[in-house]
Amino acid sequence: MGPRMTELSDAQGRMWDHDLANPPPPEPIRIRTLVLLRWFAIGGQLAAVVVAWFMGIGFVKTPVLLLIAASVAMNLWLFLRPPKRTSPGRAVAQLSFDLVQISTLMALTGGMANPFALLVLAPVTIAAASLNARQTLALGLATVALITLAAMLALPLREPDGTVLRMAPILALGHWVALVIGVVFFAGYAHRVTAELSATSNALFATQMALSREQRLQHLGGVVAAAAHEMGTPLATIKLIAAELADELQDRPDLREDAIALRHAADRCAQILRSMGRAGKDDLHMRAAPLQAVLEDAAAPHAARGPEVEIAADDLVIRRDPAIIHALRNLIQNAVDFAASRVVIDTDLTASSLTVTVRDDGPGFPSALLSRIGVPYLSRRTEAQRGSYEGMGLGLFIAKTLLERSGARLSFANGGPGAIVSVRWPIERIEAEDRLALSQNPTISG
């Protein structure tokens, strides 16, 4: 393709890489969700009050009912004046309100002796699943402080005969310790699981974007082929008219030179379009290719980056799938990035499988991370260090995901020296029909 088309492809590639490195941030928890959870909490609190009332357990009923009414009023206010968009600050404010309300209820209904005291863990758990670590830590510390105040300032519950319901000091201390441990455990567990799910989601988004980019670049060849075909006729007409004008303007040398220049320009355009059309047809129609050609296509962007890239492939025609090419390109890029001087790509063909091995002479995979290779965001670099998505462990994740979707199985190892990545397909999942996609039409005689 021409230089202008190459520049457009490079610009588009940089745009896609920027999108992969900066996936859209996840939305914080919706206020509607917090309101719904609060309605469940209000229902449970009212049920507990009614049951205790019928059992004759003594507690300060008016303050308790006023606290429940405050939650009802907050929900009604949010229903009548819903925010246009939930912000992390607004979510923190709502969870803080719930935390204060539950802690105060706990203090008014026996403190550590209240069997429903564990519900004070709900706000910090929700925060850990939807907010960042700093906001979760702040709510966690506030939860511990309010649990402690509720234990120290608790109003006791009373039996129907007026006897105070007391918990043994050692049991009260144990209950307090259990709640504090619960804050740390539930918040840490929820935050870790949510972070891993978010990382996997972002990595899958990056995989889809990378594959989409590869397919777009490949389909661009089809557009070029169609353009070359459609523009051939008007260019031929321009060339013909220019030639006729040159013949008719024998007595006007100045105009005749312009007509000749126009004809030469048309010839040049025709040559460019023929070249672009051939490349475009190859990209559009070639669905099968020799294994050597596919590996060379995958390695081409990294062949001149320093380390020597050697390819030795078996004689086999395979599917020319953009996903497979992009995945192999990521594996080769990783090998070139860490190789000292050489990257070797070889294959092993049997009756039942095809194995492609990429090895380099670099330091190899870190032993501590070898079992986790292929996990998204494996290395924790700062934003300034990342630069592109390949540097965050996403390159190997994308390669692994795309290759596994094609039926392959990957293995990672170190092989004295350097890293070794093996990709193995069942032969029926990778082999293609042994024919050229654009072979000449047969001659029909007779």
Automatic annotation (TrEMBL):
InterPro entries found in the cross-reference section: 2C_sensor_his_kinase, HATPase_C_sf, HATPase_dom, His_kinase_dom, HisK_dim/P_dom, HisK_dim/P_sf, RegB, Sig_transdc_His_kin-like_C
Segments forming domain Histidine kinase: 226-429
Keywords on record: ATP-binding, Cell membrane, Kinase, Membrane, Nucleotide-binding, Phosphoprotein, Transferase, Transmembrane, Transmembrane helix
Transmembrane annotation, as ranges: 36-56, 62-80, 105-131, 137-157, 169-190
CDD domains per record: HisKA
Membrane association type: Multi-pass membrane protein
Cell compartment(s), UniProt: Cell membrane
Domain of life, per lineage: Bacteria
Key word Metal-binding present: no
Keyword Kinase: yes
Catalysis performed (reactions): ATP + protein L-histidine = ADP + protein N-phospho-L-histidine
EC number: 2.7.13.3
GO cellular component, one term: plasma membrane
A molecular function GO annotation: ATP binding
Signal sequence extent: none
PROSITE patterns, per database record: HIS_KIN
PANTHER family in the record: SENSOR PROTEIN CREC (PTHR44936), SENSOR PROTEIN RSTB (PTHR44936:SF10)
Name of the protein described by the UniProt record: histidine kinase
Organism: Paracoccus tibetensis
